[in-house]
Amino acid sequence: MAEITLKPTPCLGGVDLRIGAIHIQERDDLALICVAIPQEGEAAVADALLSTWDLPMPAPQRVSTAGERSALWGAPDQVLLLAPRVPERESEVAAALDGKGYVTDQTHAWVILEVSGPGVQAAFERLVPLDLDPDMFPAGAAARTALEHMAAIALRLEAERFLLLSASSSARSFLHALTTTLSWRAELSPDG
Amino acid sequence: MRVAGGLIDRSRTVKFQWNERWMTGHPGDTLASALLANDIRLVGRSFKYHRPRGIFSAGAEEPNALVELGKGAAREPNTRATQVELTSGLYATSQNHRGTLGWDWLALNDALAPFLSAGFYYKTFMWPKAFWERIYEPTIRAAAGLGRLSGAPDPDSYAHGFLHCDLLVIGAGSAGLAAALAGGRAGLRVVLADEDFQPGGRLNAEQFEVDDQPGAAWAAETARLLAEMPRVRVMPRTSVFGVYDHGTYGALERTIGGGPRQTLWKIQAKRALLAAGATERSIAFPQNDRPGIMLAGAVRTYLNRFGVAPAGRVAVLTNNDDGLRTAADLRARGIEVAATIDTREGGAVVATRGRQGLREITLASGKRVKAECLAVSGGWSPNVHLTCHHRGRPVWREDLSACVPGGALPPGLSVIGAAAGTMTLAATLREAHLAASTVAEALGATQGVGDPPRASDESAAITAFWHVKGQGRAWVDLQNDVTTKDIAQSHQEGFRAVEHVKRYTTLGMATDQGKTSNVLGLAILAEVAGQSIEQTGTTIFRPPYTPVAIGAFAGRARGKEFRPTRLTPSHHWAAENGADFVETGLWLRAQWFRRPGEAGWRDSVDREVRTVRSGVGICDVTTLGKIDIKGRDAAEFLDRVYANAFLKLAVGKTRYGLMLREDGFVYDDGTTARLGEHHYVMTTTTANAGLVFQNLEFARQCLWPDLDVHLVSVTDAWAQFSVAGPRSRALLSRVVDARDLSNEAFPFMACTECTVFGGTPARLFRISFSGELAYEIAVPTRFGDSMIRALMTAGEDLEVAPYGTEALGVLRIEKGHAAGNEINGQTTARMLGLGGMVSKKKSAIGAKLSEREEMVREDGLSLVGLRPVSRAVTLTAGAHFLAPGDPADMAHDQGWMTSVAYSPELGHSIGLGFLKRGTERMGETVRAYSPVRGEDRLVEVCSPHHIDPEGVRQRG
Amino acid sequence: MRFSALKILREGLTGNRGWTPMWREPEPKPRYKVLIVGGGGHGLATAYYLAKEFGETDVAVLEKGWLGSGNIGRNTTIIRSNYLLEGNQPFYEFSLQLWEGLEQDFNYNAMVSQRGILNLFHSDPQRDAYVRRGNAMILSGADAVLLDQGELRKMCPFLDYENARFPIQGALWQPRGGSVRHDAVAWGYARGADSRGVDILQNCEVTGFRIESGTLKGVETSRGAIEADKVVVCAAGSSSRVMALAGMRLPIESHVLQAFVSEGLKPIIPGVITFGAGHFYVSQSDKGGLVFGGDIDGYNTYAQRGNLPVVQDVCEGGMAIMPMIGRARLLRMWGGVMDMSMDGSPFIDRTHIYGLYFNGGWCYGGFKATPASGFCTAHLLATDKPHPTATQFRLDRFRRGAPIDEKGAGAQANLH
Amino acid sequence: MIINHPLLGPRDASEFVYKGDVALIDRPDGMETSLDEMHDYLHLRDNPAGEHQELWYHEQGDRSWLVVTRNTLTHEITNVALARDVARARGRSR
Ligand SMILES: Cc1cc2nc3c(=O)[nH]c(=O)nc-3n(C[C@H](O)[C@H](O)[C@H](O)COP(=O)(O)OP(=O)(O)OC[C@H]3O[C@@H](n4cnc5c(N)ncnc54)[C@H](O)[C@@H]3O)c2cc1C
Ligand SMILES: NC(=O)c1ccc[n+]([C@@H]2O[C@H](COP(=O)([O-])OP(=O)(O)OC[C@H]3O[C@@H](n4cnc5c(N)ncnc54)[C@H](O)[C@@H]3O)[C@@H](O)[C@H]2O)c1
Ligand SMILES: Cc1cc2nc3c(=O)[nH]c(=O)nc-3n(C[C@H](O)[C@H](O)[C@H](O)COP(=O)(O)O)c2cc1C
Ligand SMILES: [Zn+2]
Known about the structure:
The structure holds 4 protein chains of 4 kinds.
Chain A: E1 16-19, E2 22-26, E3 30-36, H1 42-53, E4 63-66, E5 69-75, E6 78-84, H2 89-97, E7 102-105, E8 110-116, H3 120-124, E9 142-147, E10 150-158, E11 161-167, H4 171-188
Antiparallel strand pairs in A: 1-2, 2-8, 3-6, 3-7, 4-5, 5-6, 8-11, 9-10, 10-11
Chain C: H1 5-13, E1 31-37, H2 41-54, E2 59-62, E3 78-79, H3 89-106, E4 117-121, H4 124-139, E5 145-148, H5 149-155, E6 170-174, E7 178-179, H6 182-195, E8 199-201, E9 206-212, E10 215-221, E11 226-233, H7 239-244, E12 252-264, E13 272-274, E14 281-284, E15 289-300, H8 308-321, E16 329-341, E17 347-350, E18 356-360, H9 370-383, H10 397-400
Parallel strand pairs in C: 1-2, 1-11, 2-8, 4-13, 11-18
Antiparallel strand pairs in C: 3-7, 4-6, 5-6, 9-10, 10-11, 12-15, 12-16, 13-14, 14-15, 17-18
Chain D: E1 2-5, E2 9-12, E3 17-21, H1 35-43, E4 51-57, E5 65-71, E6 77-82, H2 83-89
Antiparallel strand pairs in D: 1-2, 3-4, 4-5, 5-6
The complex binds flavin-adenine dinucleotide, nicotinamide-adenine-dinucleotide (NAD), flavin mononucleotide and zinc ion.
């Protein structure tokens, strides 16, 4: 069956749309790799991340970034690495860690949307339960939460630019929640 | 009628309909002020006696002027006209009358009032017994109730929102505005919410001055200043309805100009100041409920804020100085004040006339005075409601004749202004300013707060006066028609605790929650009981402060969006290929795939089953929970959470695992595969995926915190397909790259990581739910759609076909595999015939308690197969088993049918079930009795493994 | 005083001056044969049946607040006997039968309204489970009807058949189920017990037990010590607190259940409707309010109040099946403290302390049980044997491995 | 209700799942455990009116189990800790 090769389909077909002043774009170019930190292995993992990619271990609810790679705090014994998607990403990370952490590719468990434009933070008041005040949640902050009964990770790239991650299986419902929120915002405040 | 002045925009006219009549008002009007401007006095009917009623107040406390707003599906019953912002085209009708508003047949109740006193219904309607449901109750119900729901789905949308602030100020009257201003200047994040569309509170209703400006102008100016502060958010039309734990406040915003109809905000506030003002109350005197009898403060509101006089001739009845201001303000506008009756000078009203609108009052002296409006002030009750939402009780203050916040307030909440019992303006402004400054200081704000606004204190002296004794009924609760006599009778019958009085008389239980009547009722009860108001106590306030639409609480979680929908990776392909979908938990799964020419679902399912039994079929099984388990101690961990042994599972092997709850009942089952030295992947049932994960986390963090084991849920990461049937190996050999799939090289229960179709990573398991030679193959989710298409292409000549959940069910029932119908949380391993799997050599979760005496009884239930004695008969699930000849009752119940299917291979209906001593009863005939379905069948007990009992096929 | 239409007529004509107190307000006596701790539904019903059925009138009910202030006064009033398991079903059917004759029995109109209860189902497995349950009901003498979607539509045209996330396929209907005016139940039992000589002592909190070598001698209360031969604790949400005074730990946690009532509406909902794919059940009160509820908040509490997430969850459930209620307004929300047991089923049993009995673990379903619970508790007190319909409500059932777990949720109180 | 997560700060309780008394950490492991011990561990509760230490799982967050000290009469929370630390402090290990 050499003639068949499998092609990946973006969870939301690579959605790219504007609602009012706000832009939603599926980021199907990113990989998400979970690194579990063994008991008493935090220093070793931190070391590996730093020496291989210059990535400091992120503090809780924060993202550390080096070049095109970022590390998100996931749990007390877990870091999530976000990097451009290439097929060998998981093995690259595994090689870098060389057994110091347990590596699991989570790319396909999540859909990633980038949401940007004036008024995003205000629009998110009707969607995201987190306190997104820039003092509390500056660029480089990331947190897991739930919205409209769906698990989500919100990551702030800039003042008005966020990544939202949610489960790939319910990506459509997630997008629906997001677009409704943004259209309300557009109706209530057309200029963002 | 309109008089000069007010905050309405007279340059524009707004047209609206009242009871099908077009009328006009102005922007800035409420429906109530516009009705009064149009000289409408009769607006509604009371609950019990259907007494004619008019507008009584000018705010949230309104008991009488409830209307149906809008028409068709948008009809909104019980809407307080006093809070409805007048908009162009607004459509409102009166409610709760049979016949017209003016001629209501149910007003007959009023004539029967002596027989309808408090609690009369508890003492009658008992004979004849059968009449209650058939006659009495339907009659009572039809008469009761207020407005009508449309019966159609609410056409609007509602949002939920989340706000976080340092300081929440509830109410934007003088107190709230001054507090928000100080907080805003200090640099705090402030939310200022007011349920009115116009900030200012009483300042808009009075002729006071602040900072040498008219109060209303100061309020408007201050609101504008606040709106310009970047960290302050001014929220008009937003009522804070409830105080929940740890600084969470519920607030409802009515949005205008687009977006959702309403937004339900959860406000998380470090501190809150309640500046909710006070509510005026009435005085009980005979026939005090007529249209035209209004609160004195409301009369001022209509006059000063809306430029409306409720009538041309107004009398004033008051027990305090505030009421006297009504007379003064009326006179200032040239309205005739027919009488000013001050109870402190011995004045009283002893009778009134005018059935559909007040015409005349009789004074204590016997003098009759013509008046179309009587403005009554019995004093003001601070709006303490929100301070009681944590079940605190207010305290009585004799000097104010009012309850003020007391006891333990919700943490973080303080009270200012009239809500705190500070009844005069200058004092309120100072108090508010100080309170906000204190908050700012406590939260570490460093900017200055400025000076408090200046004003002078008005006089607010009061001497309690509650009711005028005399002939005729004197109303306390206008909406629910509770009179002073009802309260007395309640006491007489032993209902003496204030909460008993409430429940027996329904005092304060109407849509206004007794905002104007509770304190009056208490005072009357105290008098009847011969005790102080303090001893009498109050009933408890509960959220919401004002009623909130159910739709708003639900937000957008309705219709198809009630819960998220999870789609399998092959969903689109399945939809293109004739699938019907079924909800399994949050997932939508293909139930079967229709093909042209198939008459019904059974045809499709039978075909799919046959395909798996004789060829090869594919089913998307992504929905099963998948958990990657990694770590040095992963094996040890698994051995503790599964009842059967897991320590010795070799790399490349898969094992069926039985998971018990700690109480020894079966929790979940699935397979766990060992993909590497420290790497396992566990599958769970679709339904329990989340719960199992949670329990495993509990075990890992709380029970054995030092085991090195890590869990990652990968359910959504892998698209997993079952490839089942004798030709499955042939198909997969074309799919999997460079791997020998022969029985020797890749035997039953083998597993491996591999690649497919020239390089896509995959996981392959040789496991079987159908009992056939079968595999499950997983690829990363985004490849799932491509994968199903590729599998179908690759297997075309093998006549591969997809199968759905229904065929999956048939296959497993034929094989006697337990699933959700059998593993329902009440099942032991023994019942499933898996008792032997529970290892006695370790103390795995659930092992110990699975040994309890009643769970190991010899005569317990066990899983059996069933087939109809008469093979043509169809079995249905849920039937109970009875021994033939036994009576059909609980005492002779012997179990039940859990699952059924039509077996295309056997050509008849088959079932699984739990039967007492089942395993010993093979070949026996029992009754499968299902009276709710009208069925009674004879079935033969057999092995649950209807097909291939030795399991030869899956190993082949 | 006997209540009747005639009596009302007479009183109405004479200014309603002749009504007398429904119960006395006696001082506690130093000693009673039987003390009942808790003046809620179960305590009062126990007193009533002790006096009426077993001739025992040397009884006092000790209530720490005003009678009926506990869960009897704050529940959503649903009665039904649509249980599945043999430990439960006959008991609840017995209770339903007692409801059916209650008003005539105690001459008080508690408005037992058998307008039916519908349990909606949304999937085939759920239908099968309801068939099994319906059959169990019929086997124990109750009534049950399986409705398909068409039949259900006729009864409830307003349900969301077209657009529901979890399609409404049909319902299990118990026509004899319904609702009752909850407060009136407490009042009716209190009046019936009082008139037979039982002392109802309000504002009388039990603060301790007198136990001598394993035998109960009496109780301490906020109104003084009282001696007794037998004491039964019917303290519902306070069960653990009261039994702790006797040194006992129970398989019970206290949790809050919230309930809600809307503003009054003209009749729109027949009987009781229960959502099968979310947490929501509703009926309409005689006054017109939609009385509804859902799941417990889920954390231990004695606070009689809950939080917003559950309010939202319940309203979501309501909107999911009947989107017409979107514009009905929620008028009041409150909470009651539930005695959640480890299997969701109750206890009516002796304890290891001679003379001390326990009635509790009713979770959110004890209102419907009130008559039978009172009857069976009275039976146990009077005969020292469990009533035939209540033989499995034993405190040792977990030790023996015989939980009565209708939901199959296992030994975690907040999952029932 | 707001739970002040020791690592993540204040979070709404709706992100969490409740389990019950912290004593559920003290599972009697080992083969010599008696049925009665296991029964009591699993079924009996102090169920106090007042301070209660209880287990919450941050399902919509970092999946940590927490031990929350909360008053069951007022809902006041006085302490929140990672359950893993509490478990270790209570002597649990492997
Ligand atoms: C919101 C809600 C909805 C419900 N819905 C339903 C329903 O629809 N159907 C249904 O069947 N059930 C329902 N229930 C459950 C039902 O209300 C209870 O199971 C039942 O009322 C409990 O029995 P009771 O009436 O005796 O309890 P309670 O009325 O709570 O009586 C216990 C009494 O004991 C008193 N007490 C406590 N401690 C002491 C002490 N130390 N000394 C003296 N007295 C003490 C209390 O003050 C209280 O009055 C609901 C409960 C709630 C809270
Ligand atoms: N003499 C008296 O007896 C008397 C009585 C009442 C008020 N007053 C006058 O009013 C001044 C007090 O002003 P104040 O600011 O305290 O009260 P206020 O009545 O002026 O303002 C209260 C505001 O709170 C709003 N509100 C109430 N509950 C709310 C809720 N739950 N959510 C949102 N908004 C809510 C109201 O809509 C109103 O605008 C006094 O100083 C006095 O001048 C006098
Ligand atoms: C079946 C039922 C119907 C109710 N109807 C109303 C009502 O119409 N109006 C109202 O104010 N409260 C109503 N309530 C709520 C009570 O006022 C009260 O909140 C509840 O009994 C709990 O008591 P508590 O709030 O005093 O703690 C109702 C309660 C129940 C149980
Ligand atoms: Zn929601």
